[in-house]
């Protein structure tokens, strides 16, 4: 007991988590390196840890300190509310309820959106002469749609795209990392991806415009435990410095570097922080 008392208080680690998508992994690595640079302490990483619900439960349990998420997704899937079309209202409502019910803070927007986007192969779009989801509904095709497990389970997922009444087989759910390989190999001919995905930069694919605006805007933010913010006074300022730096075009390029160029996430994150004047 004397030995244990002499050791002092056990230092609680900072743990950064993320979902299992290229966008979340690279953003999570940026967050981890930012904390290490600013606080001068090693950060544990649980990148690609799982879907939103798994990460949220990890945050509540104390297994994760901070992870990137989307305000509208939190409101729809965790608070079980229908998000308002006004992103400012969504942000304020989500921030208030998460602080009150879960003792976690939703920090300011990072600067990019992870809104859902429907994508097809460029050759498919050209052959069908379509550029919108309404056009896909009128095309003489029965679509094979691929979606992530998270999108399938979201209250604003399949229900949103069904508004277009697109003729399709039963949607095929899969891990998010499998979506583009499945599209490229012809296992599906349409997928619902993420507006920040680097594959959007590839000439092989085309985005179908959400011309009826059925997909809610997903502003990327950070969820962080309040007890950790109280314990580490410099943490909130370090995370706030990322706000506005991660624009959608920037994140697309970072994700393309990871998913298409196969550069290591730590190298991509270090380069971003350096170019942003944060390192």
- Shape field: globular
- Label the structural class: alpha/beta
Fraction of helical residues: 40-55%
Counted by DSSP, the helix tally is: 14
CATH class of the largest domain: Alpha Beta
Largest sheet: 5 strands, mixed
In total, how many domains does the architecture comprise? 2
- The tally of beta strands, per DSSP, is 10
Q: Any low-confidence stretches, pLDDT <50, length ≥5?
A: 1-10
The Rg value, from CA coordinates, equals: 20 Å
Oligomeric state, counting identical vs distinct chains? single chain
Distance between the termini: 43 Å
Structural description of this entry:
- By secondary structure, the protein is α/β, with parallel strands linked by helices.
- The protein folds into two domains: 12-113 and 218-275, D-Maltodextrin-Binding Protein, domain 2, CATH 3.40.190.10; 116-208, 3-Layer(aba) Sandwich (D-Maltodextrin-Binding Protein, domain 2), CATH 3.40.190.120.
- The chain contains 14 helices and ten strands.
- The chain has helices at residues 2-6, 22-39, 52-61, 71-78, 87-102, 122-128, 133-138, 149-153, 158-161, 179-184, 226-231, 235-240, 248-259, 265-275; strands spanning 15-17, 44-46, 66-70, 104-106, 116-121, 145-148, 172-174, 190-194, 205-208, 220-225.
- The strands form three sheets. A five-stranded mixed sheet has the order 7-6-8-5-9. A three-stranded antiparallel sheet has the order 3-10-4. It has a two-stranded parallel ribbon with strand order 1-2.
- Helix 2 packs across helix 14.
- The radius of gyration is 20 Å and the shape is globular.
- The model is unreliable at 1-10 (pLDDT under 50).
